[in-house]
Amino acid sequence: MREDADTTVIVCRQDFAENRILYTYGRHAKELKNDGKTFLGPVFESMIEQAGIVDDAEEVGLMVHIRLRPKQNDDRWYQIDFVMQDESMAYYSNFDGRLPAEMVHVVPLSGGLPRQMFIAVEALDEVAYAHAIDAQLFEENDEMGLPQDQTSLLEFGLEVDTSTEPTDNDGEEHFIIKKVQNRAESLPLPGPTSRATGGK
User: CA-CA to 158 of 20 to 30 Å: which in 84, 90, 134, 189?
Assistant: First the structure.
């Protein structure tokens, strides 16, 4: 599904707190290197269960794909519609009954947000693993069976300069993720660009 998305957010398990799994998230290794933690709310928990990736999500993590246009004949994508916006966050919800009636948090951009978006979840792929390992999220003696002999993006055959943000968008179109250090909050998605990009 990555090829159909306008952006993909990597979400990796980090810790446990009060019987809740906490995650770190970002679009690439640079954003994943972060002390802020978040939890997945009922909307994402429902999507994960429907996608059949509960074990993957709880043990390692997942990818959240976002696109601005509907994907025809593909029920893995869920429509969320704009509800309201305050000073720091925009709120979307699903109204077709496929997901719980809870809000999805989206970090707004100065250029505004679309009236609707489409989101999907998927188990981590090799690219996501590479970014997670490059961000040093997994210990050397990892219990999750991750490829510990792979230690950087380059070793995965990816030519990515982690000192810069690997995005096809220009400076005004960057997705923005705001993190709060050492504070758990429901997973906020980065606001999409003002125009659809790679997803077809």
Answer: 189
CA 58 vs CA 79, 105, 167, 188: distances in Å: 24, 21, 28, 18
Domain carrying residue 25: 2-190
Question: Does residue 109 lie within any of the structural domains?
Answer: yes
Unique residue bearing structure tokens 């446990």: 16
Structure tokens at 82: 């704009």
pLDDT at 4: 92
**Residue ranges with strand state E in the chain:** 7-17, 20-26, 37-39, 61-67, 78-85, 90-93, 104-107, 116-123, 184-186, 188-190
Distance CA 21, CA 58 (A): 7
If one counts the domains in the chain, the total is: 1
Q: How far is CA 11 from CA 32, 81, 83, 139, in A?
A: 8, 22, 24, 17
pLDDT of residue 185: 62
Segments in 27-161 forming alpha helices (H): 29-32, 42-51, 54-59, 126-134
As a whole number of angstroms, the distance between CA 7 and CA 134 comes to 19
Low pLDDT (below 50) residues in the chain: 140-151, 156-166, 171-183
